[in-house]
Amino acid sequence: MDTKRGGASDAANAAREPAIASTAPSSGPVVLSRVELEAWGEAYGREVSAPRLVAIDGDLGAGKTTLIQAICRGYGVARDVTSPTFALVHEYRSRRGPVFHLDLYRLRNADELTNIGWDDIVNADALVFVEWPERAGARLPATAARISLAHVTGRPDHRALSAT
């Protein structure tokens, strides 16, 4: 995948590159417009299968929820996907199974994970997204897929995506 993207044909290319393994840049992050980020997310959502925990990190406004919304569309979630900033956990359903979306931003420490049902969620046969995964500390499974989003200097409408 090119490290810089910009045209309509690039969005079509992003949609054809579905899995984290196949889209993970080997030489650094991939720079995507919002349309391309959403296409990448929808393609990943079509290919991912449960059980899978995906840790998504990035600064405020980096596009974490936007990416999760796109992945959920690709996974078959029909209802609106919103940020669980205040609820901490949202659960969705698709024909393929349950989806959990956790936002750990407001947690003070990893001990608070017990109060939101962390152990049950991460062990469920579900697709699980964790925003602000660093707040989970050592309780974040080592097997989690990792996606990082970052703002791109001088290109406010683009994000740098790294995936492993």
Features of the shown structure:
alpha/beta, disordered N terminus, 5 helices, Rossmann fold, single chain
Write the layout of secondary structure elements.
Layout: H1 8-15, H2 20-23, E1 30-33, H3 34-47, E2 52-57, H4 64-75, E3 89-94, E4 97-103, H5 118-122, E5 127-131, E6 145-152, E7 155-163
Parallel strand pairs: 2-5, 2-6, 4-5
Antiparallel strand pairs: 1-7, 3-4, 6-7
Helix pairs in contact: 1-3, 3-4
Summarize the structure.
This protein is α/β, with parallel strands linked by helices and 164 residues long.
Describe this structure in words.
Helix content is 26%, strand content 27%. The chain is of the alpha/beta class and 164 residues long. The protein has one domain (8-163): 3-Layer(aba) Sandwich (Rossmann fold). 37% of the residues are buried.
Provide the β-strand percentage band: 25-35%
Distance from first to last alpha carbon: 14 Å
String of helices and strands: HHEHEHEEHEEE
- Estimate the global geometry from the Cα principal axes: globular
Radius of gyration: 15 Å
Q: Would you state the CATH class?
A: Alpha Beta
CATH topology: Rossmann fold
Number of helices: 5
Q: How many strands appear in the DSSP assignment?
A: 7
Question: What count of structural domains?
Answer: 1
Mean pLDDT, nearest integer?
84
Strand order of the largest sheet: 1-7-6-2-5-4-3
- By secondary-structure content and strand pairing, the structural class works out as alpha/beta
CATH homologous superfamily, by name? P-loop containing nucleotide triphosphate hydrolases
Low-confidence stretches: 1-19, 21-26
Q: What's the helical proportion of residues?
A: 25-40%
Largest sheet: 7 strands, mixed
